[in-house]
Design a protein that fits this description.
Among the domains are: about 375-595, 3-Layer(aba) Sandwich (Rossmann fold), CATH 3.40.50.1700; about 640-755, Immunoglobulins (Immunoglobulin-like, Sandwich), CATH 2.60.40.10. Helices cover about 30% and strands about 20% of the residues. The chain has a 6-stranded mixed β-sheet with strand order 11-18-17-16-12-13, with helices on both faces. A 5-stranded parallel β-sheet has the order 4-3-2-1-10. α8 runs antiparallel to α17 (about 380-395) and α19 (about 485-490) runs parallel beside α20. About 55% of the residues are buried. It binds beta-D-glucopyranose (BGC). Beta-D-glucopyranose (BGC) binds next to loops.
C-alpha cells in the first residue's frame, strides 16, 4: 500500500538519522531528540495544540470561524491531538491528513472521554468503586481500552480521581467517592486496566489522571464554582490519589477549571511543575481541561487569552485543549522573552514520548483497524464482563425480614416505576459510544430470570418529560398521577413489588449540580400509593449520587442501590434480586439524611464541641442528627458475618516498625457471601488535628456458610503518618487507635503506642 510504503520510509529515515546523531539515552529519547531537532518552533507549538472534532463537543461550542480551517491546520502540522474523533474509519481519515500532508508526518493523538466503557457500558465509576474490588475496576478499564483502541483511540480522559464529599456536585458519579485511600488504589487499578504493562501493545490506551486539582471542592457543590481549600486538606485528601497514579506510571494528567488559593489550577506551577513533574517524577504530559486556559481570563487571573496562555505554559500545562491560546500566541511570547523556549521543548518532548510509547511512529494507523473494531466492540464477552462488574457494584441498603432474595418460585411480581422499563437511564451520563436505549432494562432482566412468573408491569409516573440527553436541562414530571391506578392494581395483584425509582442518568455528570437531592417528581407519592396496598416492596434505586431518602429508609422493607449499572443493568439487578449473586458492595460516599448536611463525610475532624452538652451549645443541627442516613463503608449481605475481638501483635512500636492486626471473621448465615473487612485509624492527639477515622486498609473475603477466616493487616509509617499543611510527611509518637469492622460506624477499637 502506498501509505504504508511512504510511512515506512519516513520512519526509517527518522530512525536511522536519530541513531547517527545521538548515541546516548534510550531509543525513545534518541528518536524524540532527533525528531525535535528537525522541528520549527511553530511545529513544536502545533504538537501542543488539541482540537475537537465538530461531530461531538463536550464543552461550550468552539467559535465557528476558528474551526473552519481545522483540516488545513492539521495538514500544516499545527494540530498535535484531537478529541472526539472516534471510530476506526474516522480516525484513519483524520490521521491521514496529518501523516500524509504535514512536513514531518507526525501522527496525531486521538483522545476521548471513555469514563465507564466505550460502547459496552459498565456501571458508573462511583458504582464500580462500591465493589471495593480492584480486579473489577481493572477489568472494566481493560474492556473499555480494548474497545476504544480498536476504534482508533489512543488516549482516554480517565480515570477521574477527584475525592468528592458533596452529593450536590453532579460529577461525584465519575469518581471513587469521599475517601483518598480508596481513590488512590482504585485509580491505580483503573490506570493498570487502561494502560496494561506496555502502551505499545494492542488493547491498551494512555490514561489521564484528572482533574488536577481540587475540582470536587467547588463551593456549595455547584459545578465550575470557586474552590477555597487549605493546603492541609489539599495534601491529605486531594493529592494522594494523584501521587499514587503518577508513581504507577499514568501517561497524562489533566488540570482543572477551579481556583486554588486564588489562582486558577491551570496556572499553578507548584502543583504542575514542583510537585507533579518535580517531586513525583512524572514524565508524561499535562493537558488543560476544555477551556481551562481561556477561563483563566474569565476568572480574572489574566487580562486576555495571550496572558492566560503565558501563565499556563509557564506553570506546566503542556497541551491546550480547545482554548486556542498556544497556537496563536506562544511563538510571540517566546520572542518577547515571556516564555522560555526550553519550556516548549520540554512540553513537546513529553508529548512525543507518549506518541512513541503508543507505537504511533511505527504505524500511525495501527489503532484504526476496522476488522478489529467489528470483532471487539460490544461483543458478548464484553457484555458478560459488564454484567459481572455491575452485580458486584450494587449495595444492599436495607433488607427487613429477609425480603430479599426473592424466591424464583414467586407466582406474581409487580414491576413498577418510571425507571423499571428504561433501556436508556442505566447507561449513565458519560456514555461515550453507547447506543441510545441499548441497556437491558430492569423489566427485561426480571422477565429473563423468571420466565414462569406473572409479571405485572406499570410505569406509574414519568421521571422526566420532553427532551433528555447529554447537553440539555431536564424537565421533571410533576403532579401527574394518572398512572398510579394501574400501578396500584399491579401491586394488589402481586406477591412482591419491585419499585424502580431514583434519578435520570442526565441528572448527574458534568454541569449537573443540584440543590435538592431527594427523589424528583411524583416518585415518593408513587411509593406511598403502592406501599398502601402492598408492603412487600423492594425499592431498586438507580442514581448517580447519594440521594436523600429518609422516608424510604424508614418505610421500605428492602432497598437495593444499583446506581446506573450499564449495558447489562437489568440482568445484573436480577442476579442480585433473585439470589444468584449475594450483594457485597459497600458505599464509598456517605448518604445524607437531607441536603443540608452536605458536604458530609466520615473522615471529618472532631470539633471542640462534638458531644451533646445537655443544652444547645454543641456542634449539631437542631432539626436533624449529625450522622448520615447510611455511612461510608456501609452495605448489607444476604448472609451474616461475625467478627471476633481484634488482636494486635504488639502494644507499642518504633516509628520504623509495623504493627499487625488480626481479626477472625465467620459466615454465620445461610448463604455464601463476601465481606469487606475495613480498618480505620485515628491519631487522637497530633500536632495537626487528625480525622476521627481514616480508612487505611481493607480486605474482601469470600466465606462459605459456617466458614471462618483470620484476616491480618499490617500498618506501618506510610499508613500512620500524614502531611503537614506544608506537605511534609510526619509520623508522631503517641497513642493510636485502630478500628476494625463492617462499615465506618460499626467497628471495634484497639489501641497501641508509637514510640520515638
Ligand atoms: C471535562 C473533562 C473532559 C473534557 C473533554 C471537560 O468539560 O471537565 O473531564 O475530559 O471536557 O471532554
Amino acid at each position: 500500500m502506498r501509505i504504508y510504503t511512504y510511512l515506512a520510509f519516513v520512519c526509517l529515515l527518522l530512525l536511522s538519522s536519530c541513531a547517527k546523531q545521538n548515541d546516548s539515552g534510550s531509543k525513545e529519547d534518541q528518536f524524540v531528540n532527533d525528531l525535535m531537532a528537525k522541528m520549527t518552533l511553530q511545529e513544536k507549538i502545533g504538537q501542543m495544540n488539541q482540537r475537537t472534532s465538530q461531530w461531538e463537543m463536550t464543552g461550550p461550542a468552539p467559535d465557528k470561524e476558528n474551526t473552519q480551517n481545522l483540516q488545513e491546520e492539521i495538514k500544516n502540522g499545527r494540530v498535535g491531538s484531537m478529541l472526539n474523533v472516534k471510530g476506526a474509519k474516522a480516525t484513519y481519515e483524520a490521521q491521514k491528513l496529518a501523516v500524509e500532508n504535514s512536513r514531518l508526518g507526525i501522527p496525531m493523538l486521538f483522545a476521548y472521554d471513555v469514563i465507564h466503557g466505550y460502547k459496552t457500558m459498565f456501571p458508573i465509576p462511583l458504582a464500580e468503586a462500591s465493589s471495593w474490588d480492584t480486579d473489577m475496576l481493572k477489568l472494566s478499564a481493560q474492556v473499555a481500552a480494548k474497545e476504544a483502541s480498536a476504534s482508533g483511540l489512543h488516549w482516554v480522559f480517565a480515570p477521574m480521581m477527584d475525592v468528592g464529599r458533596d452529593a450536590r456536585w453532579g460529577r461525584v458519579m465519575e469518581g471513587c467517592g469521599e475517601d483518598p485511600y480508596l481513590a488512590s488504589i482504585f485509580s491505580v487499578a483503573r490506570v493498570r486496566g487502561f494502560q496494561g504493562a506496555d502502551l505499545s501493545k494492542d488493547y491498551t490506551v494512555a490514561a489521564c489522571a484528572k482533574h488536577f486539582a481540587a475540582y470536587a471542592f467547588s463551593e456549595s457543590g455547584r459545578d465550575y464554582n470557586t474552590v477555597d481549600i487549605g493546603t492541609y486538606t489539599l495534601h491529605n485528601i486531594v493529592l494522594p490519589p494523584f501521587k499514587a497514579v503518577a508513581e504507577s506510571g499514568v501517561a497524562t494528567f489533566m488540570n482543572s477549571f477551579n481556583l486554588i488559593n486564588g489562582s486558577p489550577a491551570s496556572t499553578n506551577a507548584y502543583l504542575q511543575r514542583d510537585l507533579l513533574k518535580g517531586d513525583w517524577g512524572f514524565d508524561g504530559f499535562v493537558v488543560s481541561d476544555w477551556g481551562s486556559i481561556e477561563e483563566v481570563a474569565y476568572h480574572g487571573g489574566a487580562k486576555d487569552l495571550k496572558q492566560a496562555g503565558e501563565l499556563c505554559i509557564n506553570a506546566g500545562s503542556d497541551m491546550d485543549m480547545e482554548n486556542d491560546a498556544y497556537l496563536p500566541y506562544l511563538e510571540e511570547l517566546v520572542n518577547e522573552g515571556k516564555v522560555a523556549e526550553s519550556l516548549i521543548d520540554d512540553a513537546v518532548r513529553r508529548i512525543l514520548k507518549i506518541k512513541y510509547k503508543l507505537g504511533l511512529f511505527d504505524d500511525p494507523y495501527r489503532y484504526s483497524n476496522i476488522e478489529r473494531e467489528k470483532e471487539l466492540v460490544y461483543n458478548k464477552e464484553n457484555r458478560a464482563a459488564a454484567r459481572e462488574v455491575a452485580k458486584r457494584s450494587m449495595v444492599l441498603l436495607k433488607n427487613e425480614n429477609q425480603l430479599l432474595p426473592i424466591s424464583k418460585n414467586v407466582k406474581s411480581l409487580a414491576v413498577i416505576g418510571p425507571l423499571a422499563d428504561s433501556k436508556d437511564i442505566p447507561l449513565g451520563s458519560w456514555r461515550a459510544q453507547a447506543i441510545t436505549n441499548s441497556a437491558v432494562s430492569l423489566l427485561e432482566g426480571i422477565t429473563n430470570a423468571l420466565p414462569k412468573t406473572k409479571i405485572n408491569y406499570a410505569k406509574g409516573c414519568d421521571l422526566t418529560i420532553g427532551e433528555r440527553n447529554f447537553r440539555v436541562e431536564l424537565t421533571y414530571g410533576k403532579n401527574n398521577q394518572s398512572g398510579f391506578s394501574k400501578a396500584i392494581k399491579a401491586a394488589k395483584q402481586s406477591e412482591v413489588v419491585v419499585l424502580a425509582i431514583g434519578e435520570d442518568c442526565f441528572q448527574t455528570g458534568e454541569g449537573r449540580s443540584q440543590t435538592d437531592i431527594r427523589l424528583k417528581g411524583d416518585q415518593m407519592a408513587l411509593f406511598n400509593a403502592v406501599y398502601k396496598v402492598n408492603k412487600n416492596i423492594v425499592v431498586v434505586l438507580m442514581n448517580g449520587r447519594p440521594v436523600a431518602i429518609p422516608e424510604l429508609a424508614e418505610k421500605a422493607p428492602a432497598i437495593l442501590e444499583t446506581w446506573f449499572a450499564g449495558s447489562e443493568a437489568g440482568n445484573a439487578i436480577a442476579d442480585v434480586l433473585f439470589g444468584d449473586y449475594n450483594p457485597s458492595g459497600k458505599l464509598t460516599m456517605s448518604f445524607p439524611r437531607n441536603v443540608g448536611q452536605c458536604p458530609i463525610y466520615y473522615n471529618h475532624m472532631s470539633t471542640g464541641r462534638s458531644l451533646s452538652s445537655g443544652n444547645v451549645f454543641w456542634s449539631h443541627y437542631t432539626d436533624s442528627p449529625n450522622t448520615p442516613l447510611y455511612p461510608f463503608g456501609y452495605g448489607l449481605s444476604y448472609t451474616k458475618f461475625k467478627y471476633s475481638t481484634p488482636i494486635l501483635n504488639k502494644t507499642s512500636i518504633g516509628k520504623a516498625e509495623s504493627i499487625e492486626l488480626s481479626v477472625n471473621v465467620s459466615n454465620a448465615g445461610n448463604l455464601e457471601g463476601e465481606e469487606v473487612i475495613q480498618v480505620y485509624i485515628q491519631d487522637p492527639a497530633a500536632k495537626y488535628v487528625r480525622p476521627v477515622k481514616e480508612l487505611k486498609a481493607y480486605k474482601k473475603v469470600k466465606l462459605a456458610v459456617g466458614e471462618q477466616q483470620t484476616v491480618k493487616f499490617e500498618l506501618s509509617k506510610k499508613d500512620l503518618g500524614y502531611y503537614s499543611p506544608d506537605g511534609e510527611f510526619l509520623l508522631e509518637s503517641g497513642t493510636f487507635h485502630i478500628f476494625v469492622g463492617t462499615d465506618s460506624q460499626n467497628v471495634q477499637k484497639v489501641s497501641f503506642t508509637v514510640k520515638d
